[in-house]
Write a structure and sequence with these properties.
47% of the residues lie in helices and 14% in strands. The chain is an alpha/beta fold. It binds nicotinamide-adenine-dinucleotide (NAD). The site of nicotinamide-adenine-dinucleotide has 30 residues, from α1.
């Protein structure tokens, strides 16, 4: 029987790379997909020989998805058990300051890319089910709208919605759908400026706000648990857990806190 296989977008860096390592450690074959070829090669070099394949894919390219998944299945021995829809970019700043290009790029990568990934993944997950998984990376910013990150939050609420919709839509197919909701994770993403007009990186903002940064290995363990467990949304990090608790039990106080601060709380 072919090895269990996970296909990971954004596999050249950060969370995608850490999840690739975690699943390879668990004996899985890993399909690494990204636009960054050098980064993919670096991820592959961290995995045992013969246990991965690299696929240049821009998640905005619907036809490209079909090619990459077919190539991954061919390399792994025929099957894909998990598609990890993880590639994403940050965008911050006041909504009035964002350019149409910044807004469209973020919506296209963070949301359209996830929708295209779900469509393309379906036939592969259906044949490898029951128990196959579509795992999407949402964010703590998909729990409560983040001031100073409205567009990013909108995309992550979108990812949350897609997860919940498909959890129902694919239940009879035996395909599980899950989301990860991390707060601030120690990856290269934190080194990005929040937008073109800012020269302050996200990491500095998080540290100045007194918030924690969670090791990327925690997300890799959460991804493993998500694939092997039954929870729909998996929170990762103290800030994510705090926002989830407050939005459920203290919504008035959370709103007050968001209104009194123009600093992003979830990313
Ligand atoms: P990262 O910047 O380290 O990695 C993102 C990867 O996505 C990069 O390798 C990049 O080349 C790839 N990518 C970007 N655009 C792409 C495209 N169009 N097609 C294919 N690949 C593309 O960031 P990360 O922290 O590992 O982020 C991974 C996911 O986690 C993102 O969806 C992000 O929104 C989410 N997230 C991150 C944090 C955090 O604090 N780091 C928190 C919550 C959610």
């Amino acid at each position: 029987m072919a090895r269990k296989t996970i296909f990971i977008t954004g596999g050249a860096s950060g969370i995608g790379r850490a999840v690739a390592q975690r699943f390879a450690d668990g004996g899985w074959f890993v399909g690494i997909a990204d636009i960054d070829e050098a980064g993919m090669a670096a991820t592959a070099a961290m995995l045992p020989v013969g246990q991965s394949s690299c696929h240049k894919l821009d998640v905005r390219d619907r036809a490209g998805w079909d090619v990459a998944l077919a190539d991954c299945a061919a390399a792994s021995g025929g099957r894909i058990d998990v598609v990890f829809n993880n590639a994403g970019i940050p965008i911050g700043g006041a909504i009035v300051d964002l350019t149409p290009e910044e807004i469209e790029r973020t919506l296209d990568i963070n949301m359209k890319g996830v929708i295209f990934g779900a469509q393309a993944a379906y036939p592969w997950l259906k044949v490898s089910g029951p128990g196959s998984v579509l795992l999407n990376t949402a964010s703590a910013a998909g729990i409560y709208g983040t001031p100073g990150a409205s567009v990013y939050s909108a995309t992550k609420f979108g990812v949350r919605a897609i997860t919940e919709s498909l959890d129902g839509e694919w239940a009879d197919d035996g395909i599980c759908v899950r989301s990860l909701m991390p707060s601030f994770i120690d990856t290269p993403l934190l080194s990005h400026a929040t937008n073109r007009a800012s020269n302050e990186d996200i990491r500095t903002r998080v540290v100045n706000a007194g918030l924690e940064i969670t090791p990327v290995g925690d997300v890799a363990e959460a991804a493993w648990a998500a694939v092997h467990g039954d929870k729909l949304h998996i929170l990762v990090g103290k800030t994510a857990r705090r926002i989830a608790f407050a939005s459920r039990w203290m919504p008035g106080s959370l709103r007050k806190q968001m209104r009194s601060s123009n600093r992003p709380l979830g990313k």
